[in-house]
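Minutes, project huddle
Topic: does the predicted pose make sense with Phenylacetyl coenzyme A bound?
PN asked that the exact inputs be recorded in the minutes so nobody has to dig through chat later. Recorded below.
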Amino acid sequence: MEQKPQATPEDPAKLAQFQARIDAGESIEPKDWMPERYRKQLVRMMSQHAHSEIVGMLPEGNWITRAPSLRRKMSLLAKVQDEAGHGLYIYCGTETLGVDRAELVDQLLDGRAKYSSIFNYPTLSWADIGVIGWLVDGAAIVNQTVLAKASYGPYARAMIRICKEENFHKRQGFEIVATLAAGTPAQQAMVQDAVNRWWWPSLMMFGPSDTDSPNSAELLRWKVKHKTNDELRQRFVNLTVPQAIAVNLTLPDPDLTYNAETKNWEFGEIDWAEFHEVIRGNGPCNRERLAARRAAHENGRWVREAAEAHAAKQRRRSTEAA
Ligand code: FAQ
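Predicted holo structure (tokens), as shared on screen:
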């Protein structure tokens, strides 16, 4: 159920004033006038982001009962719990744009909403947990550090807080990776296999290349995005290659070469057909992920109903007392 608190007809003077505020680097706050299209773009992007955090709990949650030590189990539990917090925090941010969270959740559960492609891949070994922290949280940080300067205040503030926690996740993941990479031959093979499987999907997290990204131009003009998908992807590759070298792991790309002139690690062609299949719902785990979220939602129904009944009772009491 979308309310449209700011359905003011968009006269050119207002639009120009809005763009001038953006160009001056001002932050747009929930009660400020904004073009309907700006609001819609933010709802789209923020809700996809919130869904990603929630679905993102599933691949890692798969290993909580099998973590190799109490210390690893505690930090994995904390990480998964953090992702839930990020999701709820971003849903709250989306609600400041006049959207009901229940409606967004329905869109996720009935398959209308997108969430990050990366969470449709399976976690086959313990090494995947390290590699997700290193590569997936690493990619999320590169993307979200820039989103922390987004023009919409509530989203930008959410990103600042979330990035602090993602940094911790990345370090924790890299520590698992470094430990396995310095371990027995079997551990080394396990972590190399995980890197081989997660590298390309991690690059896909940044979205289609700039020539194929329908939303980028508008988001850049409104300073929701400050960098393009390809710019962020390149930054991630540049940061990650030296880390792989440091722990003697190979990245599965024969075309990876350092260009001393541009100071970039150039990389091979991404399999865009795979990317589009995954976001169309045909990745290795799409169906499993949605089934797990639907079951969780159904199992939580009694909690929501009890909370609503309690809130209604409290409201009745305060009306009677007044
Ligand atoms: N997966 O025009 P663009 C995390 C869609 S981090 C699925 O380039 P845009 C932390 C896109 O939505 C992961 N769909 O789109 C964590 C659009 O579809 P639409 C989440 C994708 O918005 C770590 C269409 O393709 N992070 O969860 C993907 O300008 C570890 C055309 O694309 C965020 O969401 C994709 N990878 O740029 C949790 C960050 N890429 O709506 C647990 C915020 C593109 O037109 C464990 N979002 N699409 O039908 C963004 O920065 C942007 O939305 C991009 C896409 C960069 C993802």
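Observations noted during the meeting:
- The mean pLDDT is 96.
- The first strand starts at residue 257 and ends at 259.
No decisions taken; revisit at the next huddle.
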